[in-house]
Structure formats: structure tokens, C-alpha cells
Here is the input.
Amino acid sequence: MNSAAKDFAPDWVSPPGDTILDLMEERDWNQVELASRLGFSTKHLNRLVKGKVALTYDAALKLERVLGVPADFWMRRESKYRQHVARLEESEKFLMWADWLDELPVKELRRVGVIEDLRFTKGNKSKLVESLLHFFGVASPDEWRECYGSMSARFRRTQENQSNNGAISSWLRLGEIAAENMETKKYNKKAFEAAVDRVRELTVLPFEEARTKIARLCLDAGVKFLLVDSIPGSHVSGVARWLNGHSPIIQLSLYGKSNDKFWFTFFHEAAHILLHSDEKKSIFLDDVDFDSDEKMEKEANSWAAEILIPEEYRFELLSLRAEAEIVEFSKKVNIHPGIVVGRLQHEKQIKYSSPLNKLKESLEV
Here is the structure.
């Protein structure tokens, strides 16, 4: 079947009554004649022909005896008709729900391929609504607001502009879908602590090699590690959360696209999993470029900073300025020099526009 035939979805429906009328015409019967043969009132037959009453199996058996067409044919015909009627009615609902599209990053979700790449015209709005309902796994925008709109009450934000719930929930949903296809062991805190120590050793590797090893180490400890490209407006570099209260995930966006931000964000989210497991209903939304005064965010920041560059090296760290010094120090503590540059910038020891940025690695999902 070609794609045009497969996608054919007319905005009209043909009830089984159309076939009944064709067979009546072949026999030169009117509705009074057929009704008497079927044992129906003329009014009931007329309503049946127009699709205003359902064609029951009892009626199908009578049509089989009178018109010679098997009952199964009539039941299939009725089923397809009712399905088509329901879809047309749904399409009308989708059009009524088109305002919901204004709450979501439709253009971006088209770009990443989770919904059809349709122009934002009136004729396509119902299709876009349907695609987005499938994407979020909800029956209507009301259920989306219940499941995802209300999710915002569980957000622990690091900054106030993380308020675009449509963008944030879309990014989180992309992670949920990816996580559904990942098999992992039951979460084990000690195993994850050991995995995090081993992950630190990977900072010196090329990113593509490191990301594969991170995913495996995390999965073996019962944590799902995800890289999901950022959604404009979400202002989220990473999130730590527990799906269904028992499956922890770390989802990073590469927001900022440099390896120093990636590594700090990973360890920051790992800290939330390890330190704040009592907050399983919380969703920790983090932006690595923003310092939060919130207690748990400070704890996660301190934990991540300590594991990357332990406090015992702080004095030596703050004395670094030259490229050669930074490279030598990074070898000493066994981390990527780009992380050292990022830390010095955060400590306001060198400018964010410094030529030393060349020591960082640029990343892509």
C-alpha cells in the first residue's frame, strides 16, 4: 500500500446503511418492503440506514438471511463506521483544544522529530494536538495539566526563569520516553557511590568515549543516565529525579555545551541522588550557571566541587594563571584541564572570556 493510501483519512463517513440502500436498489425494494422482511418498523430501518442506531449482531444475522450478505461483513462495516465517527468527533475536539499548542514548544518538538513536521495552519492544528497527546501519553490537555502542569509544584528550581512549564515538561518527557527503553538493575547506593568515583576518572577521556562508559556504570548501579538536547526556554542543564519513586535518573542537556559544565552538572545531579534520596517526589531542576541559596542545592554544589577538585588543592588551584600551570595541575589531580579553567572562572580568578577557554572541550548531544 502506498503512503497516500495509508494516510487517507476522509472527513466523511459511510454508514452500513449505504450498502443496505445499494442492495435494496438492486432488488428494487423500498424501505417499507425491506422493513417488513426484516421484522423492523420502517422508522427503525430508516434510523439504521442513516447510522443513527447501531447495527447489532441480531440485525446483522437478519440482514444475512434477507440480503444474502454474511453477518460478519455487516459487523465489520459497523465497527469501521463507528471507529471513523469517533475519530471525526475526536478531530473536532482536537481543534477545540488548539489553544493548548500555545503552551508548548511545538516548533522545537517538530525539530527533534517527536511530532509531525506540519505547518502551523488551522487545518493541521488538530493533527498537532493529537501528536502531542500521544507524545505526552495523555488523553486531553486537562490530563496534561494534571500530570505535567501540576508537576511544577514538585520542581526545585535553581532560578526563577525556570518557569516555562511547557518547555520543561517537554524536555522531561523526552527523558521519560528514553528511560522507558533502558533496562537497569535495582538501585544500590553503595554501588552508585563506587560508580561515581570511577566516573571521575573518565573526565580526561574524549567525551564520546566517556559518555558510553558513564551510562554503563550508572546502569549497573541502578541509575539511568540520559543526554537529551535542551529545549529553548527550559533553562535546564540537568535534572535528578526518581521515576515512580524507585528508579533514579540523571538527565543532562549539555546546556552551555562545554565539558566543564557537563562534568560539574553530572556530579551535582549525582549528589542529589546520593544525598537527597528522601526527596523522591522532588524534581531537581538545575542550571549550572546559577548559584542557588537553597540548602540542598548548596549541598550538591559543594559535593560536586569537592569530588572534582578536593579542598586540599584549593590554595594551589587559586594560584593558577598560566596555561602550562593549569595543564600540569590537571594532570596532578587527574581531571580534564577544561574543568580547572571552569572552576577558576567560577571562583572569579580568570575571566569567562579568557583565551584559556581553548582548554575546554566543546560538546554535542
Notes: The mean pLDDT is 90. The beta strands are 155-157, 224-227, 238-243, 247-252, 283-286.
